[in-house]
Amino acid sequence: MTAPASVSGPAADRVQIFDTTLRDGEQSPGATMTLDEKLSVARLLDEMGVDIIEAGFPIASEGDFEAVSAISGVVRNATVCGLARTGAADIERAAKAVEKAHKNRIHTFIATSPIHMARKLQLEPEAVLEKIHFAVTHARKFVDEVQWSPEDATRSEHDFLVKAVQTAVDAGARVINIPDTVGYTAPEESAALIRLLRERVTGIEDVIFSTHCHNDLGMAVANSLAAVSAGARQVECTINGLGERAGNAALEEIVMAMRVRHDILPWTNGVDTTRIMQASRLVSQITGFPVQYNKAVVGKNAFAHESGIHQDGMLKDTTTYEIMRPEMVGLTESNLVMGKHSGRAAFRAKLKDLGHTVGDNQLNDVFVRFKALADTKKEVYDEDILALMAETGADGAPQRFEVKELAVTCGTTRSPKAELTLIVDGVEKSATETGDGPVDCCFKAIRTIVPHEAKLQLFQIHAVTEGTDAQATCSVRLEEDGRIATGRASDTDTILSATRAYVHALNRLQVRREKSVAPQEAKAG
Ligand SMILES: CC(=O)SCCNC(=O)CCNC(=O)[C@H](O)C(C)(C)COP(=O)(O)OP(=O)(O)OC[C@H]1O[C@@H](n2cnc3c(N)ncnc32)[C@H](O)[C@@H]1OP(=O)(O)O
Ligand SMILES: CC(C)C(=O)C(=O)O
After folding, report:
1. Ranges for the Pyruvate carboxyltransferase domain (predicted)?
2. Which pTM does this prediction carry?
3. For 275-285, what is each residue's pLDDT tens digit?
């Protein structure tokens, strides 16, 4: 067992990371994990360099006992810790569960706030002090490393809290963990409490102070870091901030804050940050708790940029809008999301990624259509953009005909009717047609505006992406004197997509006519 370091010792700047995903995290309603799931989380935490894994509360159930025992058998580097109340049965159960561990710890606790002592425990403060003495002394019979916590410390009276901590230290506790059980404290107060205890409790040269913060007011991480600034050298936290009610301090935020702002948070820890995304995804997948999109460090949008100005900055220098590189947390790259706020720089880069190098005119043409599409969709996917490219003649076909306006009426009580305006060689031309269905009306209207003999050989519709806002991609194949031309178009409006696909095919047919492309060669089109 390694000796805990004091803040003035050689490892003064090293903060121990105590992960309680498997204990406090599992206390989130609905987050119960199976033995195998707990083992996979524990293995990953161990590999990524967490110092202490709180594997469970062994007296809670047979399953919890088995999980803590099994984890004790597989963890190679980290200390395995089991939680216990102050009674002998709890402590002995925890001791048994962690006995196989390569490094082990018992974490015993009892509440010290007036409300918890009087209303929940229904014990006089003196009786609580006796239980602290018993619990720590008893736990020390089984393990060297005993951690003690005054539950609801931040709502405890200071004089009594000092007495309680002194009792635990005198009884042999090596780690004093100060929980903000109900997420009530604020950063300055959190720091002040650690400072007060370090000043008033005696015999703490070999004692590590620890912080355990809940997120009820969204301050868990700030409160934890404030406690560290006052001398705490262990932080209790969970992956994704999982935990009772609003959760615990998030491990990934604590670790990355120390890494990214080492200039003002000058402490180190042993976590390999490149495993963070893997851990986040594993815990989310096992618990079924989705990670909030805008969650710091591990949210889907933490390294995503949709705004044109930001994307332009990112393309020029990623440090304009990113304070950490995605690789630091195990992602391969940032994500420039194409949407209504995107600009030309990002759009050009996206086209290049998709294999299309375009000139300024072509870029402008596709970009206008992209913006119109983005106004109708939450996110524009690569497939949407490829469909736009095909439609806009970015494949080389000049745009003699273009859809200007379309209005279609149909339903159970009226015959389908299409009112269509095309731009033909720069001139607006309109037609109104009825037919067997909305698509038939539109195709008839095209034929009225641009008379031609080409036969419709094929008409197909399929969805490019998923959801009700998916783009419908339509393909139209026309045949005229052995010449074949295929047109494609995409839009969230299926009828508009079909109409544009027909017009696209007509444009390509026109190219074939003008070049007098031989029928066999034209088949490739
Ligand atoms: C702040 C925290 O996160 S603390 C950890 C919270 N986690 C959990 O409670 C999850 C696991 N818990 C359980 O499975 C159960 O509550 C058990 C097995 C621990 C206890 O179950 P039961 O014996 O049925 O008791 P129950 O849960 O109803 O009540 C808790 C009892 O523990 C007592 N208690 C609470 N904390 C402590 C403590 N630290 N030391 C001693 N007794 C305590 C309560 O006063 C209450 O005693 P009472 O029954 O004499 O009134
Ligand atoms: C057991 C203690 C540390 C706890 O989880 C809390 O007080 O929140």
Report:
1. 15-277
2. 0.81
3. 999 999 999 99
